[in-house]
Sequence to fold (228 residues):
Amino acid sequence: SFELTQPPSMSVSPGQTASITCFGDKLGDRYVCWYQQKPGQSPLLVIYQDRKRPSGIPERFSGSNSGNTATLTISGTQPMDEADYYCQAWDSSLVFGGGTKLTVL
Amino acid sequence: QVQLQESGPGLVKPSQTLSLTCTVSRGSISRGDYYWSWIRQHPEKGLEWIGYIFYSGSTYYNPSLKSRVTLSVDTSKSQFSLKLSSVTAADTAVYYCARGARRAEVLNYLDYWGQGTLVTVSS
Fold:
């Protein structure tokens, strides 16, 4: 079955760039989106169709997808960006990655 | 903007059926460009997609849950519902409803989510 693999955790210093990866077989052939989830909150869509930002999402969030890897990039990371991030794609079923816990310190 | 709100019992006994309803407001559930989904999240775990329903009533389920899941829609009430049968403790989770963008007959992304509701399976 199709799976999406993310690193369980990563840390970044404030102001630096965070790059969160999502690996899946031929992932570049399908659309990927990304969700941000803070403790006690519902997931929030931050990137859809590989690189598009919903209204209200800061420009520091960007996305790319090629080959077997999709990447969510947060430029100039802020403390408020500390959260869990999930990638998602469709392959006969809607599939989520396992999530990456981003720590900003 | 669209709002979704889950409702239903927070406690279900083992072997019984979990039933939840999602009410959609500030937007039409009958739009042809959206699928209406259920997703769950086990405590301290990741997200698991349960299935979606189209306003016409057509459904698509996660193969791993398909045998126990039934989704239905009531467009007159702007609601869609989830039934999960034969529940066990492993079904304890926060259950979310969400709106999914339909692109080329595929569920592309989930752009609006409810706040989620915790359902505990316990005797």
Q: What stands out?
A: The interface with chain A takes residues 37, 46-49, 52, 62-63, 96, 100-101, 103, 106-111, 113-116 of chain B (CB under 8 Å). The CA atoms of residues 5 and 39 of chain B lie 13 Å apart. The first strand of chain B starts at residue 3 and ends at 7.
